[in-house]
Design goal:
The protein is of the alpha+beta class and 216 residues long. It is 68% helix and 11% strand. The chain has 5 helices and 4 strands; from the N terminus they run H-H-E-H-H-E-E-E-H. The N and C termini lie far apart (143 Å).
Amino acid sequence: MSSAQSNAESVLQEEILADARRQAKEAVDRARKEAEAVLQKARIEAENDRRVQAHAAEAEAKRRRELALATIPVTVGRRRAECIEAALNQVRDEAGRGLAARDGFDYRQAVIRLTAKALAQMDGNRFVLEVSDADNQAFGQGWVQEVSQQSGRSGLELSTAPAKNQGGVIVRDAEGRQVWDNTLPARLERLWPALRRELAVATRLVSGAEPQKESQ
């Protein structure tokens, strides 16, 4: 092999090696750029995910906060209503005890007046006044006549029994078709819805116009 041929082969080998090194470098550079692009994309996607999650968490926190705030007036209103009801029930219990003790009013005159008002609104000519034996004795013999005078009704029959009721009189016609229960517990029960409203308004527990009073 001549020296010229040997040099030519050496040059060719160098060129081949150089080309291989260049291609290898280009492949590495491309791989590096692609890797950097992938990493950058991953960073962007991760940041976007973080923002989306942060926004979702903020929205959820806001929703829960608004929900909690919305329940406050409801809770306050419920507690206020419970306190008002408890206060009114206490008044009712005290009123019941006062009636049972005949405290603060002329019991005999109250029974006569209420019985007369009941009779005045009933039809018929003969009526039965049901009263406890103890009350009948305490009122004395003239109380039925007083009822008759105040009501303008005659034909009143008296019906008594031991512990007949808890105070007051049950008025009925002779045939039993009309009954007016004016015992104290029954009257309190009948009047309480209107009274509790008046009490609540008068004590400013609630607002509103006062209801009309019951005539009986």
